[in-house]
Design brief:
Layout: H1 73-99, E1 188-191, E2 199-200, E3 215-218, E4 227-237, E5 241-245, E6 253-258, E7 273-278, E8 305-309, E9 318-325, E10 334-337, E11 339-343
Antiparallel strand pairs: 1-4, 2-3, 3-10, 4-9, 5-8, 5-11, 6-7, 6-9
Length: 344
């Protein structure tokens, strides 16, 4: 008898009748499950009893469990689709996280009031008998005057002074004719109303304080010289003495004083006041001629100096002072003034 692979084999119940075993060549391993009536698992190939959890038959070496089936194409496709869906979702979420700005966070400040627990009320038992409350004192409504702050004053140390003894020295007034009169270098000039001088020198050389320099004037021979040297003192002053340094002795000299904006134009003008006169200055008079005026007392011939006190009491002041030469020197027709000095 031939069995189909898909047709099951029915084994009669042993209690019903005695069954005849099937030939071994008609059964294939895995086609039927042989179960004995003792209830223990057995090998499907050789029927040997199997222990619990035994995967291989120790008698024939056959597998005791049916082989596991490989997953089909539908399961593989389903798993792949699910993986693609998950990957797409992850990409979308990453893109959204990179492009969306995080929402602004608002900070809410909550101020918590600090609760001060109320002081515990302590009941005190007083044994003092009740007395009436005293009457309230009257309220002073007088306005308060602000107090001005007092600035401390730093005491100033009193300097220690040493008493000094002041000695008053009374200087005697200078004698008349001893105070020099300041005459500027540009104050002198040639005085020649009649144009007698044929030559003259620099007037400042008679006022520069150097006795080695001199002013000179030369006139033609014969007669009086009639030339002079005039000085502008600018501020009128009393003139009491003349000191003249010269190296041309023997001439005669007259001294005049005047005021005004300009010196008088002529030597014989009434605006000139004669202050003094001297003859034979620093020398003797020429032989055979008498000087127009005598020499001054104390004038020594050849010492190159002549001091002439002027006839004035000091009450008159003058701006212009002139030295007028009349008689020429003992030798020649040139007169020289090395230095002219005036005193008040």
């Amino acid at each position: 008898m031939t069995l189909l692979e898909d047709e099951p084999v029915v084994v009669p119940d042993p209690d019903d009748a005695v069954q005849t075993p099937l030939p071994e060549d008609l059964l294939a391993p895995g086609d039927i499950e042989v179960t004995l009536d003792d209830g223990e698992p057995r090998c499907e190939t050789c029927g040997t009893a199997l222990a619990a959890g035994e995967d291989w038959c120790l008698t024939c070496g056959a597998a005791t469990q049916a082989p596991r089936r490989s997953p089909g194409l539908r399961a593989v496709a389903l798993a792949g689709s699910l993986a693609l869906v998950l990957a797409g979702g992850a990409v979308a979420a990453s893109y959204a996280a990179l492009n969306d700005d995080p929402p602004a966070q608002s900070v809410k400040v909550v101020t918590l009031a600090k609760l001060t627990p109320a002081p515990a009320t302590v009941e005190q038992t007083s044994t003092v008998p009740d007395t009436p409350a005293p009457e309230p004192l009257p309220i002073d409504t007088t306005p308060i005057t602000p107090i001005t702050p007092v600035v401390p004053v730093t005491p100033t140390p009193t300097p220690t002074t040493t008493p000094t003894t002041t000695t008053t020295t009374t200087q005697a007034a200078p004698k008349p004719g001893t105070v020099p009169i300041l005459v500027g270098l540009a104050a002198g000039s040639l005085y020649d109303p009649s144009a007698r001088a044929t030559a003259s020198g620099t007037p400042s050389r008679a006022l520069d304080g150097d006795p080695n320099t001199s002013w000179f004037a030369t006139t033609p021979a014969g007669g009086d010289m009639n030339v002079g040297f005039v000085m502008d003192l600018e501020d009128p002053v009393a003139v009491l003495k003349l000191r003249l340094l010269t190296r041309t002795p023997g001439f005669s000299l007259q001294v005049f004083g005047a005021n005004g904006e300009k010196a008088p134009a002529a030597a014989d003008s009434s605006d000139w006041k004669r202050l003094g006169e001297v003859g034979s200055v620093d020398g003797d008079a020429p032989e055979g001629s008498a000087p127009s005026s005598p020499p001054v007392e104390g004038d020594k011939a050849g010492d190159n100096e002549m001091i002439l006190p002027l006839d004035d009491d000091g009450t008159q002041t003058y701006r212009w002072v002139m030295l007028w030469v009349t008689t020429p020197p003992a030798a020649g027709t040139t007169v020289r003034f090395n230095e002219i000095r005036l005193y008040s």
